[in-house]
Amino acid sequence: MKSVIKSFFSLFLFVLACTLWAGIFFILPYFLDNPFNGWQGWFITLFHWGLECFATFFLIYFFSVNKYVFAVFFPLFSLLGSVLSFYRYAYKAVLTPMLIDASLHNDLRTTLDVVSIPLVVFVIVSLLISIFAVKYRFEKLKVSKPLIHFVASALLLCVILTANGRLTASLMQRFPFNVYYNFSEYKKLRKTLFTERIDPDPTLKSTCNDSLKVVIVIGEALRADHLSLNGYHRLTNPRLSKRKSIFSFPAIYSEFTNTNMSLPHILTRADSIYPERAFQEKSFISLFRKCGYYASWISNQDPAETYVSFINECDTVLYCHPEKSVYNYNEWLDEDLIPLAKEIKKKDSPCNLFVLHTIGSHWYYNNHFSPPFKVFTPVTSSRILSQCSKEELINSYDNTVVYTDFFLDSLIQLFENENAVMIYLSDHGETLGENGAWLHAGDSEASHHPACIVWCSDKFEQKYPDKVKALEMNRNRYFRSNFLFHSALNAANIPSKVMDKKLSIFNFPLQ
Ligand SMILES: [Zn+2]
After folding, report:
1. Are residues 304 and 157 in the same domain?
2. pLDDT digit string (tens) for 191-221?
3. 141 inside domain
4. What is the pTM for the complete model shown?
5. How far is the centre of ligand 1, averaged over its atoms, from the C-alpha of 6 (Å)?
6. How far is the CA of 259 from the centre of ligand 1 (A)?
7. Domain-terminating residue out of 158, 193, 228
8. Number of structural domains the chain divides into
9. Is 203 a domain residue?
10. Is residue 306 located within the same domain as residue 435?
11. Which class for 348: exposed (0-12), middle (13-18), buried (19 or more C-beta within 10 A)?
């Protein structure tokens, strides 16, 4: 009996030592740049780190019951852990399905130094330590009653990983569980890519002959009533408000309050009567391409299963920051989309459709504006909502709005001498303390009212004065967010029989 307890105790200490090593060198880098305030914030962050380590303990425990399994597992675990934590610490980069896709297809379009001397040193040291651990496991540890250990560790690991949805989501964002999570997300996305959607207008055939540039900007969590263009008391649109031919639509209604559900409804002709079209039909991108448009998707967000097939409808797809996820707490800016749009614009195609998917006003707000746009202060200094005051949260949020104003103005500069039209539509709004709620994906009224801004170039205005007049006449009318499908086609004069003019903001009177 004594020897059983002794063997259990030595295994426990061994797993604990391995977990501590992993906890400090492979897991801690995911928490070092998390903003928090005071001892309470420090404690909450430490608690989250502890949870990740706690779950990792049972993973290592599971694999160390059998010495041969451990000999394969632990060096591999250390190799992945050292590489991923190095990039997380040195480059603020995390594993994402996009990064996996880019690496597997050998088109890693990032500025990261893929291999550097400190990385190689860190990986070698980690591997040496793992080999030492394997040697120790072989020579010093005898595990009695392995079946009990095996079943106990597997059961406890399953309980920890599935007990609570929020806890699971948090665990899956950091090493080691992020490896499993991102590969399974990647697999899901690949599967979705090959699910065929129906062409909403198989008979459509046309050519494009007036060199039009149609720019669709999908915003993120920008609510209409925080634009000074719509009468907000703070000057959040200092640049756009000075431009001519800017039309803000304050009365757009989005039924969905999260990105994944909203995008399929914005991009297809789904409506409240036929909502299933969002998951059965192709988007307007395919209809543009059938008419000779060169379509590109330039993204500052991760693709999700619900809309990755639309991305695949494009001729070109560029990811601006494949190494970021919403669990990153460092600068992640939309202006990085502009050089990519510029690059595509250089290609000699007469008609272009650009779809830009922005990070906009996504939480954590401070990451999504650069220092010159810290206009309203004080801003938040913690990612823990309960540590932020209402004033700080709204200041941080409003700074993202000023930044979006700058971003859209810079994008317009790129197209102002062309025959061009830009439609900006946020995927949903944001809740800012109404009834004590924050962020989005809930059902507060404010998250159903996304911002929408349209801009037309002088050339577009000269060519299509009726369309521009219609924008002026329609600007205060109520539209559901599925107006985008019909309005994009109408703006480009695409003669599709599925385009409903009544739902186009470029058409007046609406009949
Ligand atoms: Zn969203």
Report:
1. no
2. 777 678 999 999 998 888 778 999 999 999 9
3. yes
4. 0.86
5. 54
6. 3
7. 193
8. 2
9. no
10. yes
11. exposed
